[in-house]
């Protein structure tokens, strides 16, 4: 059901009750997108969040842990943002049940809230493997063992790190690497335990993963691959971990970053179809109930569940367009996953496949291990179907654009990996079209940056503040600066800017004239 399907008299006299369960990055972004389409004139919006805050950027929790950011730096929308827009935000409130027949949700304390449209954005939780000694008898994580998902998790880890000397991190994916680096910043000796044969095995091939391992070890982190944790040792406190091969790693705190699982309990409890996550159609609507939608890590679309930020932003845009009755942009066809970020201080970009899949696939590789650089592209039928960059991601923006749009590729494949026109490896902003995504963390395109400049933001800092570009992992800041500088140079000054500058010139001339005697020739 969309707003346009209701009688116009109904819309004019009564707002639809839009309830969003989940105030994480997907849920809050969906609300932002609805509001940007004049959704405040269509909906009476209520949002429920488990945590006692507004909305914050989970990607930046690693920076919070390492001390690079403070809590205020990671806030996306504070509580006042909701109040100023007439949105009712219930912080620290968990929804326990959905009654589809009466169209109501119930909180844990028994309070009920009616809805006309319900959006489930409950996200995910850390996956906790079956490891002896991980939990207490009551099922809670034992003292000294942590997940890494929330601000409270991060606070607990920071407090514990101040009083401990050695940590073990279980999981060698993105989150585990960031946790290890963050704990090192507190002076701890860190062992990284990864069950697969190489780091970030979901995104990188063996060569890239091995190169990344070398760079991580150069930071001082001890990396153990093919290391399956079987037991956490210690009685009253954590004393170490035992691996499947019998190896014992001494430690006094453990962080588990072994993946995530979708939060599907609400959907299962009310009879919605759930596979790995809540099954939705191309409008992000659940397949069982036309009044209930799901977005983010709790949604499964065409068999896919996305954990990256960019697909979440795409889903939020489609959902908002659909709910507000837009004529276009109301179909989600899935996302081509591409990302560019810093992993424990190392630049990494990945997209598509990691290696050739067919004999006819082209595979172009450049490797410079001494500098920690690897560049790899996979081409099929003259289209880019995959790329991996480690250590030098200067060409990432151009590659992501070619990957997303299926653009024709240069006959000289080396041009995909290097900008042969100049000695610089920096991306050329002029090569990117307006739809090219510049900031993957916050879903900001080149066109958005240019329009922000045209709307009056005349510096990179001002543009970043307005759009949040560069406020995630920070790997896009160089490209953001390049785009902003180009937009400022090419866009005309506003009338007010020109007026102020002209007045300044006249005042300067006046001051100069006062220093000259009137009888001088």
How does this structure look, described?
The protein has 521 residues and is α/β, with parallel strands linked by helices. Helices cover 29% and strands 24% of the residues. It is built from 15 helices and 29 strands. A five-stranded parallel beta sheet has the order 5-2-1-9-21. The N terminus is likely disordered.
Considering the chains and any ligands shown, give keywords for the structure:
single chain, 521 residues, alpha/beta, 5-stranded parallel sheet, 15 helices, 29 strands, 29% helix, disordered N terminus
End-to-end CA span: 82 Å
Low-confidence stretches: 2-13, 422-427
Structural class: alpha/beta
Helix content: 25-40%
> How many runs of DSSP E, i.e. beta strands?
29
* Apparent shape: globular
Strand content: 15-25%
Count of alpha and pi helical runs: 15
Main β sheet profile: 5 strands, parallel
Biggest sheet: strands side by side, in what order?
A: 5-2-1-9-21
Mean pLDDT: 89
Radius of gyration using CA atoms only: 26 Å
Helix/strand layout:
Elements: H1 8-13, E1 16-21, H2 25-36, E2 43-48, E3 55-56, H3 61-66, E4 75-77, H4 79-84, E5 88-90, E6 95-99, E7 104-107, E8 112-114, E9 117-120, E10 124-126, E11 145-146, H5 151-161, E12 166-170, H6 174-184, E13 189-193, H7 206-218, E14 222-224, E15 229-233, E16 240-243, E17 248-250, E18 253-256, E19 260-262, H8 265-269, E20 278-280, E21 292-294, E22 299-301, H9 309-323, E23 338-343, E24 346-352, E25 362-368, E26 373-380, E27 383-390, H10 396-405, H11 414-417, E28 437-439, E29 444-445, H12 446-454, H13 460-467, H14 477-490, H15 495-513
Parallel strand pairs: 1-2, 1-9, 2-5, 9-21, 11-18, 12-13, 12-18, 13-14, 20-22
Antiparallel strand pairs: 3-4, 6-7, 7-8, 10-19, 15-16, 16-17, 23-24, 24-27, 25-26, 26-27, 28-29
